[in-house]
């Protein structure tokens, strides 16, 4: 078949597949006279087994874009019986239910430009060279959820502030998961059902969206025979993204007629990120308790308002304190508030009975950052806490930063994925599971 008889039609910039009223735009392909252009923009939610039919495991990952002042975060002694440093004093009631880690990181550099590697171990700039790209821990877990919950995962965080919006959650195709940024938006997503008329219209729209790939399958196979290997791989990646969108549509159709749970609370007002922090945590707890989702991420951005603490300056500026005592004191004040609200969240999960344990017993809660020391722009020795989830806790687990005993942070993520019920021995830059975490 000559190039002129390929089952496509072209505009001046793009090529398309076409079948029975269906038109599917293609990425630009070298074999068709254009350069390869990444088009993947779908959330990756591959089907798989549900997890924990009776007492499902949950996973919550809380991140901070600017890290923590190291002397105020890391205990000075390892093992049990350690004293909590200034930043972590609010965690004292929960010490037996959590582990503090030091010496863990991803071995990457880049300062602010490497914080997006927090849950993946891979910088976005290096994603193309990795087997799973910069797929993050939460989205790897979400791929196994299928239709077990209304929302396979929830991403929360700010879409404004220094260095852009939330950079915490990334799909297998290298797409950033856009966050829900306010309590009201999250509340409505979780608990406000559509009216009968709007629901009917939504279902009609979903029913109209049949499988685009099925419709153009014949033309796609003919096209593939004309492409070089590189373009075949790019086309397969693109079709995977389209299929992921279709799976999202099918999931929405499945849950369209299922009533949303009653949260037994009023719709919250949006105030400021600082004031909204405890409300967002409460809504995450409700989302887990009602099994609306089992996976959530929450990122505290660089726009965290210093003015809410009576401080004259910005959070980002205070993180670059230059060893000035007054700036460090201001930074610690903001960090302590973040830890205080995290501790309150742990208390909330621990107060919710579930079977013979609590919601915290069945929830892995990770707290940390992809930034080790914002003042020095380093990404080593990341501040990491893991609570709940049935792990053996109560220690400051200190690992060597170099040498044969070094442990990549991704080893902790492999342990978490296995506890979540996923049979895997590898994630990101891992070398195994994390030693010392039964």
Short description, anyone?
With 438 residues, this protein is of the alpha/beta class. 30% of the residues lie in helices and 12% in strands.
Mean pLDDT: 82
| Helix content bin | 25-40%
Sequence stretches where pLDDT stays below 50 over 5 or more residues: 1-14, 34-53
CATH class of the largest domain: Alpha Beta
Please tell me the CATH architecture of the largest domain by its name. Answer: 3-Layer(aba) Sandwich
Shape: globular
Can you tell me the number of structural domains? 2
Radius of gyration: 23 Å
Number of E-state strands:
12
Q: In sequence order, what are the helices and strands, one letter per element?
A: EEEEHEHEHHHHHHEHHEEEEEH
Rounded to the nearest angstrom, the distance between the terminal CA atoms is: 60 Å
Number of helices: 11
Strand content: 5-15%
CATH topology of the largest domain: Alkaline Phosphatase, subunit A
Q: State the strand order across the main sheet.
A: 6-7-4-10-11-5-12
Helix and strand composition category: alpha/beta
Main pleated-sheet profile? 7 strands, mixed
Describe what you observe in this structure:
- The structure is a single chain.
- 30% of the residues lie in helices and 12% in strands.
- The radius of gyration is 23 Å and the shape is globular.
- It folds into two domains: 1-37 and 197-259, no CATH class; 43-192 and 261-420, 3-Layer(aba) Sandwich (Alkaline Phosphatase, subunit A), CATH 3.40.720.
- The longest helix has 27 residues, at 229-255.
- The chain contains eleven helices and twelve strands.
- It has helices at residues 70-73, 137-142, 183-191, 196-208, 212-215, 217-224, 229-255, 273-289, 315-319, 325-351, 409-420, and strands at residues 8-10, 15-19, 22-25, 58-64, 98-102, 154-157, 295-300, 353-354, 357-358, 363-369, 384-388, 396-398.
- α3 (183-191) runs parallel beside α8 (273-289) and α8 (273-289) runs parallel beside α10 (325-351).
- The strands form three sheets. Strands 6-7-4-10-11-5-12 form a seven-stranded mixed beta sheet.
- β2 (15-19) and β3 (22-25) form a beta hairpin.
- With 438 residues, it is of the alpha/beta class.
